[in-house]
Amino acid sequence: MRRSNGVFSPQERKTALWALLMAGLIAAMGMVVQQWSQPSVGPGGIEAYMTAPAPGVLDAQPIN
Question: For the whole model, what pTM was predicted?
């Protein structure tokens, strides 16, 4: 009679299952936190990114 599959012990399989469950829980909690929080825009806020264009620089235009 065989008591195991010869690869992993029952304790190792149980530990692996707990590790997978914990990794899934951490990933799910990260997704929840990401949806509830605003993206980081740095110390200056969004206003730091709103600057006037450099003189002589044109926006990209399609080639006709």
Answer: 0.52
Q: Which residue has the tokens 């929080």?
A: 37
Distance CA 17, CA 14 (A): 5
Q: What is the mean pLDDT of each run of 10 residues along the chain (64 residues)?
A: 72 96 97 81 65 71 75
Backbone angles phi, psi at 4, to 5 degrees: -145, 175
DSSP 2-62: -SS-SSS-HHHHHHHHHHHHHHHHHHHHHHHHHHHSPPP--TT-GGGG--PPPTTPPPP--
Contacts of 59 (CB under 8 A, 6+ apart): 53
Residues comprising the chain, all counted: 64
Contact 32, 38 (CB under 8 A): no
